[in-house]
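Hi Y.,

Following your request, here is the sequence exactly as I used it, all 339 residues.
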Amino acid sequence: MESKNIYQKFLKAEIYFHVLLWAIVLAYPYIKYLEKEGGYMMSFWHELNSLLFKMTISYFLYLWFFPKKSKIRHIPLVILVFILNVITYEYFDRFFHKGETHFWIHFIANSLTYLSFGVIFFTVYSVKNVYKKQVEIDRLTQEKQQAEINILKAKVNPHFLFNTLNTIYANALKKDDKTPNLILKLSNTFRYVLHEGQKEFVSLDQELQHLNDYINLQEERLSNKIMVDFSRSIDDDKQKIAPLLLIGFVENAFKYSSIIKGQNHIIKIDIKVHNHTLYFFCQNPFEERAKQTIDTEWKESGIGLKNTKERLTLLYPKKHQLQIEKNKNHFTVTLEIQL
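Below is the corresponding structure, written out as tokens. Let me know if you'd prefer a different format.
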């Protein structure tokens, strides 16, 4: 996540900020009097003592007070620590200014100095907290999206399972030689859904193999009812894609083609991947009247178009273009994804 990277960079830069800030504070008096005769008259130990008290109140505020959720009830303690810090500094500073008695002038001047450092460190804390909260928001958003994606992926079409098992059973009764292969493809299909389907991304090769097994099972189940024209051109099948993303469109094509009267209805599926961009085309015969014959459970089961649209929005925001066209004779899906 970009915000997480920015936050981590901020944390690394913060260390240098602290070192640089206190180095400047320590060196400032000497730099200020550098060109004056005699230079800065106070000793290094005087400045080190002053620096120690500035750091004490600054980090008390930065590390303890600012992170408190309920700051108001801690204000009396902060004021007490603030006053004690100023008084204690004045006491130790007297060792370097013997004979001076301007207590209240020094008290006000030092108080304003400490307040200035408090403002600086509150600014740093606020900026840091903004980045931290954004990282947390991004994490929660990602977890929410992942939960939604898992729910969407979890839907398996029971009609596909039952109808395919019936087909395999019928083939087994006829002692068809294709029965073992059909069982293997069905097994691979559900293994993919249960295992690879739970991953965030899989290779194109895996996704297309799952798609091919599904198509073969449907072709066998629907026999002469449907013919599939499946073509693909992939320049790199090791590229990654979200699993179970294309199956919804293909499932939809078989669902609506199977209810149309007649035989040899053609489903066209074309998949191309070029320069990290996937082009998907799926077209199936369609009749509005036949749509009414689908029972509600079948219509709502499976991955479905609505489900797939939601996953595309979550997984590929601003990286995909989906176009769905429906007329009297055909239902066409065109999808482009930047992988």
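Confidence is low (pLDDT under 50) at residues 295-302.

Thanks again,
Q.
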